[in-house]
Amino acid sequence: MGQWWKRRQARRLGQSAEAQACAELQARGWQVIERNYRVRGGEIDLIMRDGDGTLVFVEVRARSHAAYGGAVGSVDATKRRRIVLAARHYLARLPEEPVCRFDVVTLQAGEMDWLPGAFAAEE
């Protein structure tokens, strides 16, 4: 298998994980605001509003196994900075800044785990 095949499979895994996470959060009553919000230097997988009105920036990570820290370990300091950069860009467009937080949803070996408030913008 070539590198292109591995990248293709990883992209499919990521897209499937995002769809599963989005469906799970919508089942909890959350509203989708944006999907795959991109700016130069950062991206947010899902921007959603939870049941109490909080704006939630959701990072979705999928791994087939736990090697190298697994799905949670892949949200390192660099990844968090990129998510925060994109979130600040998104918030700058709004007339006033709402209450917001950063969640991480991981899918690893078929198990979904939701980590509300996984990190803060100030980290």
UniProtKB/TrEMBL annotation:
Pfam families: UPF0102 (PF02021). It comes from the Bacteria. InterPro entries: Restrct_endonuc-II-like, tRNA_endonuc-like_dom_sf, UPF0102_YraN-like. One of its GO terms (molecular function) is nucleic acid binding. Belongs to the UPF0102 family. This is UPF0102 protein Ga0061069_11313.
